[in-house]
Specification:
- By secondary structure, the chain is α/β, with parallel strands linked by helices.
- It folds into 2 domains: 165 residues, HAD superfamily/HAD-like (Rossmann fold), CATH 3.40.50; 55 residues, Hypothetical Protein Ta0175, Chain: A, domain 2, CATH 3.90.1070.
- Helices cover 33% and strands 20% of the residues.
- The strands form 2 sheets. It has an 8-stranded mixed sheet with strand order 5-4-3-2-1-10-11-12, sandwiched between helices. Strands 6-7-9-8 form a 4-stranded antiparallel sheet, covered by helices on one side.
- α2 links the parallel β2 and β3.
- α1 packs parallel to α8 and α3 packs across α4.
Length: 236
C-alpha cells in the first residue's frame, strides 16, 4: 500500500469506540456522512444485537453494512436484508444458564450474551452439555458463539459483498473482541480509551477518546493523510 488514498473503508466498533454509553454524538454522524460522500465505505462491527439499535435510536442506514452479534449476523441497511452467519443459539444451554441463576442473559439470533462473572457458570454448562462453543470477552460483557465466529469472520463476509480486500480497510476499536478484526485489516487503530493490549497492537492510537477519536481518524482518511508516515508513529 503506497498511498493514503488506497484506504477504501473504515470498519468501526460501536460501544466505547463510535459511541459512549450507547450514544453517538452528532459530530460522529457528520464525519461518517462526509466519509461516505468522499467514497469511503463505513462498516459497523459490533457485539450488539440488531434490535438494540432501535432502542438506542441509532439509524443503521448511515452505514454501508453492519456486522452484529460479534460476527454472527450481517445486515445490509439499504435493503434491511439480514444474513445469519452462524447457527441459532442452543436452547438447552439457555435453559441451563437460567436454571443456574444467570439472570443477566440476552439471547440473539445466534449469540448468547451475559456478563462477568457468569462466564464461570457458562463454561460449566457448556461442558455438561458437550457443546462446541467459545467465550469471548468485551470488557465486562461475555459472549458465547460457535468456534470461528468473531468480528473478523463477519467483516470478511461484509467485505466480500463490497468487493474489498481487508488490506484496503482501516479498523478501529477499544476492547478484547476487537483484536480479531483489527488484525485482519491493513491498518489497525485504537481509540485513546482502548485497553492497553489493543493499543500495543495498533498502528497508532487516536488523540481523542471514543467518538472524538473516530472523528479524528475519519478526517485523516477523508483528507488523504493516513499515510505510511503516519502509521510509523503512535499518536498520543
Amino acid at each position: 500500500m503506497d498511498t493514503a488514498s488506497a484506504w477504501k473503508a473504515l470498519a468501526t466498533d460501536f460501544d466505547g469506540t463510535l459511541a459512549e454509553d450507547g450514544v453517538v454524538l452528532p459530530e460522529v454522524y457528520d464525519a461518517v456522512s462526509r466519509a461516505r460522500d468522499s467514497g469511503i465505505k463505513v462498516i459497523l462491527v459490533t457485539g450488539r444485537e440488531l434490535r438494540d439499535f432501535e432502542a438506542l435510536k441509532v439509524d443503521l442506514r448511515v452505514f454501508d453494512h453492519v456486522v452484529a452479534e460479534n460476527g454472527a449476523v450481517l445486515l445490509d441497511p439499504a435493503t434491511n436484508v439480514q444474513t445469519l452467519l452462524a447457527p441459532a443459539p442452543s436452547e438447552p444451554l439457555v435453559k441451563m444458564l437460567q436454571e443456574h441463576g444467570v439472570t443477566s442473559l440476552s439471547v440473539g439470533q445466534t449469540i448468547i450474551a451475559t456478563c462477568v462473572p457468569h462466564e464461570i457458570t457458562a463454561v460449566e454448562c457448556i461442558k455438561v452439555l458437550g457443546l462446541e462453543l467459545t467465550i469471548t470477552f468485551n470488557k465486562g460483557a461475555v459472549m458465547i458463539l460457535p468456534p470461528g465466529v468473531n468480528k473478523a469472520s463477519g467483516l470478511k463476509a461484509a467485505l466480500k459483498l463490497l468487493g474489498l480486500n481487508p488490506g484496503e480497510v482501516v479498523a478501529v476499536g477499544d476492547a478484547e473482541n476487537d483484536h480479531a478484526f483489527l488484525t485482519l485489516c491493513g491498518c489497525a487503530v485504537a481509540v485513546d480509551n482502548a485497553l492497553p493490549s489493543l493499543k500495543e497492537k495498533a498502528h497508532f492510537v487516536t488523540q481523542g477518546q471514543a467518538g472524538e477519536g473516530v472523528v479524528q481518524l475519519l478526517n485523516l482518511m477523508i483528507q488523504g493523510e493516513l499515510s505510511p508516515a503516519v502509521l510509523a508513529q503512535v499518536v498520543s
